[in-house]
Recover the amino acids of this structure.
């Protein structure tokens, strides 16, 4: 019986981390923090502050975020790093903005990734009569 249960657990695929934007990948090993996140939608704009945490090394996470975002068409604009505030990366893509803030928590048990994104929403096309 234990073998059947163990085999069943082995076939379950982990869910990818929550993301509000299909072209902003979230690295594995990060857990979405809904209580620290905010999503605002209007007919013309979608804005989000999405917070994730995990036990990942901040420097390698910074490199991985840049590589995956650039692979998804985001243009790197700037990076700022400080020892006490972490790293902030800024990207743009087709008039949309993205800021990635990677930092360690106060206890340094967790690394946090904060994604601040804005996206213009195209209104649906109306058929001409």
């Amino acid at each position: 019986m234990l073998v059947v249960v163990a085999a069943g657990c082995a076939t379950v695929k982990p869910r990818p981390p929550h993301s509000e934007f299909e072209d902003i990948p979230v690295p594995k090993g990060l857990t979405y923090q809904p209580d620290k996140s905010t999503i605002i939608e209007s007919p013309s704009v979608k804005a989000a502050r999405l917070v994730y945490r995990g036990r990942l090394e901040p420097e390698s996470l910074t490199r991985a975020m840049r590589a995956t975002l650039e692979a998804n068409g985001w243009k790197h604009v700037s990076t700022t790093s400080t020892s006490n505030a972490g790293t902030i990366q800024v990207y743009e893509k087709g008039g949309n903005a993205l800021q990635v803030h990677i930092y360690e928590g106060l206890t340094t048990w967790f690394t946090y990734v904060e994604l601040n994104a804005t996206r213009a929403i195209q209104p649906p096309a109306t058929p001409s009569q």
Notes: DSSP finds two helices and seven strands in the chain.
